[in-house]
Amino acid sequence: MSANESPAGHAQTLPTATYDSAFLKACRREPVPHTPVWFMRQAGRSLPEYRKVREGVPMLESCTRPEMVTEITLQPVRRHGVDAAIYYSDIVVPLKAIGIDLDIKPGVGPVVAHPIRTRADLAQLRDLTPEDVSYVTEAIGMLTRELGATPLIGFAGAPFTLASYLVEGGPSRTYENAKAMMYGDPELWADLLDRLAGITAAFLKVQIEAGASAVQLFDSWAGALAPADYRRSVLPASAKVFEAVAGYGVPRIHFGVGTGELLGLMGEAGADVVGVDWRVPLDEALRRVGPGKALQGNLDPTVLFASTEAVEAKTREVLDSAAGLEGHIFNLGHGVMPSTDPDALTRLVEYVHTQTAR
């Protein structure tokens, strides 16, 4: 495969305008002018301009409106001066696009009308085509023109996290139905995750081919698993996703919450960058992940509710912990919380840039 050919055989134009950005350099573990910063959920509820744009528009509908997606994605770039934008969407968008009857209920999260519990239920999961999400292609085209040299991160939910919603029927603290399938019917579980891996890979390919400079796989709930269960029952599907997009040459980021015990395995799945939540210092995360990967993270999001002095002190701890890393992307250890003061985020970006200027 040539460098400018995608795995699907389509001519792939690598995002040359963003190639030398601090963010992509850090992903490639190359020297950077400063530590790049972006925040998970930077586009969203913490910004008054977001709430104004979204007023009266349901979440999933907003994800299908290219002009709205473009505006919301750009808002934190304008306001905070972050080093990368992340595409405004939701991890259940590809499931909705293939016809799964689900909705995002305010204060609850994704709710699935007909949970997948039997082999017959797998029929709900057909392949995703680019035509199913044509609004994504349109929005990313608009975004990359606006962003210029600022990279755009595409993303998707990982097979385990999507499966947990589909099997439970909504958010869960215990994942009892998902784990019951994983332990009690491992063949059905493997087939479910394999189908989801195909859908996820197709969704990421659409974003990359439209112009995304990097992609992040969110395995938000993988922290509920023991390492042996993750290796046996989850890692193969995540590895399938990463392998499917490997030929594009864009950095692949892997992130989960509460995944300190899984960091090495998450890197093993095929990521170029491993995201770390706030529970594990970055120098210890490096030991667990091993060489050859950049790390992303990992300020506790709740620190932003403290004084500026406290935020700077805790940020300094993160930067000091990252001193031995070949590549470091500064981020929070999870998403921006809805009631976060946007000005605290703007100050944080400036502080990291200033403190790490080379």
Beta-sheet strand percentage?
A: 5-15%
Low-confidence stretches: 1-13
Morphology: globular
| E-strand count | 9
Given the structure, what is the number of helices?
A: 15
- Sequence of strands across the biggest β-sheet: 1-4-5-6-7-8-9
Approximate helicity band: 40-55%
Structural account:
This protein has 358 residues and is an alpha/beta fold. It is 43% helix and 9% strand. It has 15 helices and nine strands. It has helices at residues 22-27, 48-54, 59-62, 66-80, 93-97, 134-147, 159-168, 176-184, 186-210, 227-233, 235-244, 263-268, 282-289, 308-321, 342-356, and strands at 85-86, 102-105, 109-112, 152-157, 214-218, 252-255, 273-275, 294-296, 328-329. The chain has a seven-stranded parallel sheet with strand order 1-4-5-6-7-8-9. Helix 9 runs parallel beside helix 11. The longest helix has 25 residues, at 186-210. The radius of gyration is 19 Å and the shape is globular. Residues 1-13 have low confidence and may be disordered.
Name the features.
358 residues; alpha/beta; seven-stranded parallel sheet; two-stranded antiparallel sheet; 9 strands; globular
Write a brief caption for the model:
The chain has 358 residues and is of the alpha/beta class. Helix content is 43%, strand content 9%.
Per-chain topology:
Blueprint: H1 22-27, H2 48-54, H3 59-62, H4 66-80, E1 85-86, H5 93-97, E2 102-105, E3 109-112, H6 134-147, E4 152-157, H7 159-168, H8 176-184, H9 186-210, E5 214-218, H10 227-233, H11 235-244, E6 252-255, H12 263-268, E7 273-275, H13 282-289, E8 294-296, H14 308-321, E9 328-329, H15 342-356
Parallel strand pairs: 1-4, 4-5, 5-6, 6-7, 7-8, 8-9
Antiparallel strand pairs: 2-3
